[in-house]
Specification:
Number of helices: 4
Strand order of the largest sheet: 3-2-1-4
Number of domains: 1
Strand content: 15-25%
Largest sheet: 4 strands, mixed
Helix content: 40-55%
Distance between the termini: 37 Å
CATH architecture: Alpha-Beta Complex
Structural class: alpha+beta
Bound molecules: zinc ion
Order of helices and strands: HEEEHHHE
CATH topology: Sufe protein. Chain: A
Mean pLDDT: 92
Shape: globular
Length: 153
């Protein structure tokens, strides 16, 4: 199995069996992200406690890329501090927004590298970044963001 196939499998697996999926009973912050280009509509629910993402979940509907990306995000960032989560978020956004012509050392990105392929399809980049942008909105201004909506447009 080549790397590209492996990455496609990973995206399919995470979209079919999304991790941390469903609206939790308790949370401190939520942001609803909407991508009108594709119709992805995902809400991120996070419980911030002692400067950490104690609980991170998502709910909504979307294409396999948006669901897989949100799914992987919740898995990677649960338990992290706000600053660790923000740096992972910038790393991911930087990866998928790099020009496709640019060579990237995929080894440093772990499973996130599965999404490097979306760079070839600019309209899908917003699917991959939706959940991350929504979470970033919360983490950058936790004191102002209790419950909010963001759109990629
Ligand atoms: Zn989408």
């Amino acid at each position: 199995m080549d790397l590209q196939t492996l990455y496609q499998e990973l995206i399919l697996e995470y979209s079919r069996n999304p991790r941390n999926f469903g609206k939790p009973q308790h949370y401190t912050h939520s942001v609803r992200g909407f991508n009108p280009l594709c119709g992805d509509d995902i809400t991120i629910y996070v419980t911030l406690e002692d400067n950490k993402l104690k609980d991170l979940r998502f709910h909504g509907t979307g294409c396999s890329i948006s669901i897989a990306s949100a799914s992987l995000m919740t898995e990677l960032l649960t338990g992290k501090t706000i600053s660790e989560a923000l740096s992972q978020t910038s790393k991911f956004l930087e990866l998928v927004q790099k020009p496709f012509s640019e060579d990237i050392d995929l080894n440093q990105y772990g499973n996130l590298a599965a999404f490097a392929g979306v760079r070839a399809f600019p309209s899908r980049v917003k699917c991959a970044t939706l959940a991350w942008h929504a979470l970033e909105e919360i983490l950058k201004h936790p004191e102002q963001t209790q419950h909010k909506q963001v759109s990629t447009e």
